[in-house]
């Protein structure tokens, strides 16, 4: 969401619509179809790996038949096309001739700490929070950003317009207490129930 907000005005100034689609085949197809009706469109899908394999197979066929100006950006968990954790549906999407994949490595612990410092946390707070987030989230950038937002929403961190993020509570809380669940995780749990 933060990424979308940051690039939305830039993309719109170039005459391209930006659409955020949940990882559901009908929603992605709808966004792609609107491109043929409303002009160039960039569709952003987070966590495409959550789609069913059969839906991804259909989506791969849709790309082959696509005649409208649309670009789809998606994120999915995995370390490369040879990663056994990647679903067969994602593999089929990667085989579409017009598909280009950019694989991002997990962040190292020092990079997570740097990310937190860039957001305004003090060196000490960045180290404490960064170690915990790196250990629990395996350095996955999207999951780390989601967790930072959950910490803000839960009041563990306070966002200051001038100084960035500040811990609201003592740092010991970040070492020992269960972290609040990010909105994305809460939505997944609610969807399963």
Notes on the structure:
- By secondary structure, the protein is mainly alpha-helical.
- Helices cover 51% and strands 12% of the residues.
- It has a three-stranded parallel beta sheet with strand order 1-2-3. Strands 4-5 form a two-stranded antiparallel sheet.
- The radius of gyration is 19 Å and the shape is globular.
- The mean pLDDT is 77.
Cα shape: globular
Largest sheet: 3 strands, parallel
Helix content: 40-55%
Order of helices and strands: HEHEHEHHHHEEHH
**Helix- and strand-based class?**
mainly alpha
Low-confidence stretches: none
What Rg, in angstroms, do the CA atoms define?
19 Å
The number of distinct helices, counting runs of at least 4 residues, comes to 9
Query: How large a portion of the residues is in β-strands, by DSSP E?
Result: 5-15%
Determine the mean pLDDT.
Answer: 77
Question: Span from first to last CA?
Answer: 24 Å
Q: Count of DSSP E strands?
A: 5
In spatial order, strands of the major sheet run: 1-2-3
Structure in a nutshell:
With 193 residues, the protein is mainly alpha-helical. It has nine helices and five strands, in the order αβαβαβααααββαα.
Write the layout of secondary structure elements.
Elements lengths: L1 H12 L3 E5 L3 H14 L2 E5 L7 H13 L4 E5 L13 H7 L14 H10 L4 H15 L3 H13 L3 E4 L3 E4 L4 H5 L6 H10 L1
Helix pairs in contact: 3-4, 5-6
Main features:
3-stranded parallel β-sheet, mainly alpha, single chain, two-stranded antiparallel ribbon, 193 residues
């Amino acid at each position: 969401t933060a990424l979308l907000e940051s690039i939305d005005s830039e993309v719109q100034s170039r005459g391209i619509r930006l659409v955020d689609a949940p990882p559901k085949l009908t929603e992605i197809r709808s966004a792609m179809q609107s491109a043929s009706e409303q002009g160039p469109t960039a569709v952003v899908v987070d966590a495409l790996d959550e789609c069913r394999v059969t839906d991804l197979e259909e989506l791969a066929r849709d790309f082959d038949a696509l005649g409208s100006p649309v670009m789809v950006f998606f994120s999915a968990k995995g370390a490369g096309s040879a990663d056994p954790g990647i679903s067969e549906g994602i593999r089929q999407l990667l085989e579409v001739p017009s598909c280009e994949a950019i694989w991002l490595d997990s962040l190292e612990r020092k990079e997570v700490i740097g990310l937190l410092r860039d957001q305004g946390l003090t060196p000490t707070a960045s180290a404490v929070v960064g170690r915990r987030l790196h250990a629990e989230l395996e350095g996955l950038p999207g999951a780390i950003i989601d967790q930072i937002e959950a910490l803000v929403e839960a009041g563990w961190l306070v966002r200051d317009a001038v100084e960035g993020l500040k811990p609201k509570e003592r740092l010991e809380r970040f070492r020992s207490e269960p972290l609040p669940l990010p909105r994305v995780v809460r939505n997944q749990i609610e969807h399963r129930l």
